[in-house]
Amino acid sequence: MRSDGNQSALAGLLLSMPAFVGLAAFVAMPFLAAVILSCTDAQLNSPLAMRFVGTEQYRRLLSDPMIRRALANNLVFAAVVVPVQTVLALLLAVLLELVPSGKRLFRVLLFLPVVFPMSLIAVVWILLYAPGETGPMNRVLSWLTLGGWEPRDFLRDPQLAFPAIILLSLWQGVGLQMVILSAALSRIPKELYEAAAIDRAGAFAQFRHITLPQLRNPLVFTMLLTTILAFRLFEQVRIMTHGGPGDATRTLLLQAVESAFDLQQIGEASALSVVLFCIVLCISVLQQVLLDEGRRS
Amino acid sequence: MTTSKTFGAVVMLGVMTLFYLIPVIVMCVGSLMPDSRVLTDSLTVSRWGENLTLTNYRDVFERVQFGRFFLNSVVVTGGITIVGLFVNSLAGYALARFTFRGRRLFLFFVLVMVIVPFEAIAVPLFYLVSAVGWRDSYGVLILPFVANAFLIFFFYSFFLDIPRELEEAAWMDGASTSRIYWSVILPLAKPVFATGAILSFLFNWGAYLWPLLVTTGPEFRPLPIAIATFYTLPPLQWGDILAFGVLMTLPVIVAFVLFQRWFVESVTTSGLKG
Question: Are both B208 and B175 inside the same structural domain?
């Protein structure tokens, strides 16, 4: 820390001022606004003055079946995507380690979807999910089942729409998780495996007693990151299904944006935003606690 | 390691990668096919070669203002990235190196702001900017994302790790603060700036939610919104839509292939640091 008093203090203030103003105006202020607006019945472009309604918006959220369905969908998404994506990413990362050459090429190919904008992915997957036997997904499934697959209209089928959304989200997410795990994997000291091999530990025992414990923190980090992403699920459902058919693909964020943007119900949308924030906050705190625990041991 | 195990791994990885790439292959091949053939033939390898055409690409430019959308995305992403790197690195530097009133409080504030997901403030921010009639401009697309708590903290931790002696030597020689920043700190921090630039670019190039809320017409519409509206523009011509997709990802893919080591490392370091 530089110790020449006033000049240093002034420089420090000046240098951090733009960032501070930006965060205060565009993060802190809207967040406080969300808390305040969630206790009102504010509407966009409404001539009526907004009224203070206390916790009514929150109580309404709790009793709204559509919101319950949205929350359930977010939870199902997390419950499916987190384990499946983690296992797939781990499998790919381990396979990458075993491949003698071309590791970089495979890594680039598998990372590719991460650089695609989600809205483009959503549109391309609408094509893949096209109904009828010419639809690419229907064709792949028919080919894999040797013709036993009946063509379906994935995005309009109440049973299949949400699994379809989950599949493409997995497709985009696995590359990122794989790259993080693969980097962590290549940092595990080779001596550990050599020592285990001398002790005649099999491949599975090595994986269980060396690889997994060494990957603890990257696994915790990526799994909870994916959990947070599960609660931010939005673009795919907005573009591909608008929450339908019925409420099969409705999510909390979609509901918040629709009530604010399409229905101008700012009070309700703000209450949803606050709920969303609280969920993400809990996961972030859990993530931090688990990571700190991992660093200590 | 036995050869059969290696062979098995290569085959398994190859098959998985092939399936994984189907959507990308369909996009690239389909963009070169006449619209009527996209659905039926984009997965039929034996028919890929038949009368391929570039008309889809011409159609994209004829049916919508693709150039305008592209420019919008470049201006917005570039603006956020360049101004953001400047603003956030300075704040990180100030936090790491200067004593000033409110420093600890600011650091705490930054740490709290890291947790707030943009999705949780999008709606109230939309309400606030609508209340003052601030829509459809580059400013409203860029300014909210310039100051970024994650990047401030990222730079702050990097500057903390730089040995202080380097600057103290320059300080003894009578160099000013700005001179030290430009000629001592910046050259050392090149990799961190590259990482920050790539992360900022990745986060913002595909941004959808905010532009959806604050752009009403094509004038300031960036690519992620444009592709979603292009899909709904009748008549539905898949070849054109896929060509649009290829055009909008091409620059990212070129950048990605050129700097792929940087990309992968950026994502991993930011990931491992948590």
Answer: yes
CA distance from start to end of chain A: 32
Range of the domain at B273: 25-41+53-64+233-274
**Alpha-carbon gap, residue B109 to B113, rounded angstroms:** 6
Interface test with A, best of B127, B167, B246 (most A CBs within 10 A): B127
Is B106 within 8 Å of A179 when comparing Cβ atoms? no
Maximum mean pLDDT: which of A179-188, A267-276, B42-51? A267-276
Q: How many domains does chain B have?
A: 2
Residues B192 and B100 in one domain: yes
Q: pLDDT for B159-196, tens place per residue?
A: 888 888 877 888 788 878 778 888 888 888 888 888 88
Pick A8's closest partner by Cβ from B23, B99, B241: B99
Closest partner residue to B6 (CB to CB) among A100, A221, A277 is A100
| Pairs across A and B, CB distance < 8 A | 294
Residue B223: inside a domain: no
* Domains of chain A, residue spans: 68-296
Query: Could you give the 3-state DSSP secondary structure of residue B18?
Result: helix
Architecture of domain A68-296: Orthogonal Bundle (1.10)
Q: Are A135 and B26 in contact (CB under 8 A)?
A: no
For B209-260, the pLDDT digits (tens) are 999 999 998 899 999 999 999 999 888 899 999 999 999 998 888 877 777 7
Contact between A254 and A231 (Cβ < 8 Å): no
Domain annotation covers residue B11: no
Residue A164 has pLDDT above 70, yes or no: yes
| Cβ–Cβ under 8 Å, residues A58 and A278 | no
Residue A193, helix vs strand vs coil = helix
Q: What CA–CA distance (Å, rounded) separates B6 from B4? A: 5
Q: Which residues of B touch A127 (CB under 8 A)?
A: 26, 30, 38-39, 238, 241-242
Residues B34 and B158 placed together within one structural domain of the fold: no
The pLDDT value recorded for residue B274 is 37
Residue B88, domain member (yes or no): yes
B130 and B257 belong to one structural domain: no
- Complex ipTM more than 0.90, yes or no: no
Same structural domain, B133 and B242: no
Query: Which residue of chain B has the CA closest to A233?
Result: B119
Judge: B116–A277 Cβ closer than 8 Å, yes or no. Answer: yes
Cross-chain CB nearest to B206 (options A13, A110, A117): A117
Q: What does the block give as tokens for A200?
A: 């005649």
Judgement on whether residues B186 and B74 belong to the same structural domain of the protein = yes
Average pLDDT over residues A41-57: 80
